[in-house]
Amino acid sequence: MEHLKYPVGKFDSERTEYPLEEMLEYVLQIQALPNELSKLLNGISAESADNTYRPGGWNVRQIFHHLADAHLNAWVRTKLTLTEENPTVKPWNENAWAEGKDYGFAYEASFLMLVGIHQRWSLLLLETLKTPELLSRTFFHPEHNKSFTLAQLIAMYAWHGNTHLGHIRIALGK
């Protein structure tokens, strides 16, 4: 069951140091996510969008909506981190969001959101890498009662996108 929940492995949330080359790779993964999702979803049926990657897991449609919501929150956190000193970010209950009526709709609108978010976000992150000291800027997460660096956020959301790509591949049998 663990490999279904974490198809690319668990994220190391205690890690704090990331070489610049690794950060570039993570930004490129974030940038590539919409294209990778597009390839996976090309020609799937409405019924396939109801497939789950594990018992009790989200279906493909819910994963899409979740990715749009989560990465929108990450983009906002990135902007706040770059424009404020250690801003406090708002936690959000992803499971409660997944229960919303909007998660029952077709995934296309969330895909379009994700494309736009990732275009802006990846450009912002690529600019950030040109000034590596920006990667050490922090935000405070009250749910964890600690600060995280922008580098940690980038690494986590590259992992996040890859994890959900894995979930979709499993759900679609690819």
Structure description:
The protein has one domain (26-39, 58-172): Four Helix Bundle (Hemerythrin (Met), subunit A). The two termini are 18 Å apart. 57% of the residues lie in helices and 5% in strands. The protein is built from 6 helices and 2 strands. Strands 1-2 form a two-stranded antiparallel ribbon. It is globular, with a radius of gyration of 16 Å. The longest helix is centred in the middle third of the chain and has 24 residues, at 60-83. The protein is mainly α.
Helices, by number, come to: 6
What is the CATH superfamily classification? dinb family like domain
Structural class: mainly alpha
Principal-axes geometry comes out as globular
The low-confidence parts are none
Order of SSEs: HHHHHEEH
Rg, rounded, reads: 16 Å
The number of distinct structural domains comes to 1
Total count of strands: 2
CATH class reads Mainly Alpha
Helical content stands at: 55-70%
Tell me which CATH architecture applies here: Up-down Bundle
Report the mean per-residue pLDDT as an integer.
94
Strand order of the largest sheet: 1-2
What composes the largest sheet?
Answer: 2 strands, antiparallel
Tell me what portion of residues adopts beta-strand conformation.
Answer: under 5%
Distance between the termini: 18 Å
Assign the CATH topology.
Answer: Four Helix Bundle (Hemerythrin (Met), subunit A)
